[in-house]
Amino acid sequence: MSTQPLPDAPTPAAPLPAAPLPDAPTPAVQPLHPNLAVAQCIQAGNAAYKTEFARTRYASDAASAAAKAYRCAMPPLEGQQNISNFIACVAHGVLISAIDHRDSSKLLYAAQVALSLLRVQLMHPANPPAPAQNSHLPGVLSAG
After folding, report:
1. Which of 8, 25, 32, 75 suits a disulfide with 42, CB 3.0-4.6 Å?
2. How confident is the model over 38-70, as pLDDT tens digits?
3. Do 118 and 110 form a contact (C-beta atoms < 8 A)?
4. Is the pTM of this model over 0.85?
5. pLDDT tens digit sequence for 18-33
6. 141 Cα distance to chain centroid
7. How far does Cα 8 stand from its chain's mean position?
8. Closest CA to 92 of 109, 71, 78, 121
């Protein structure tokens, strides 16, 4: 049985772009995820993947770069909204394998600690320090 090469398939012509209707509104660009912080992480990961794959042509290297960029784009653990967004990014990162499940427990614990600290700070706001009494520093007036 002899094998013959397949004939070259004709290249289909590229479709012409559709012209917009005169009064049609421009459709809104949908984010990659309903949570904008997660969308930002996804976007950073996608950009890093494309860049690294174009550079090396290795999917594993591109996936590593994407995972690192995803994690670097996560919001800081400051403020309740950022902490909530951080948790959402961790959860989504685990789902798409940008974050290893072993690392996720550490990241979620860090978020839990940050949230606990935030609650304590909200319950007990720091009082400004009282002026020093009987200061012996040059140029500082002492009370008394």
Report:
1. 32
2. 999 999 999 999 999 999 999 999 999 999 999
3. no
4. no
5. 444 445 444 455 567 8
6. 50
7. 45
8. 71
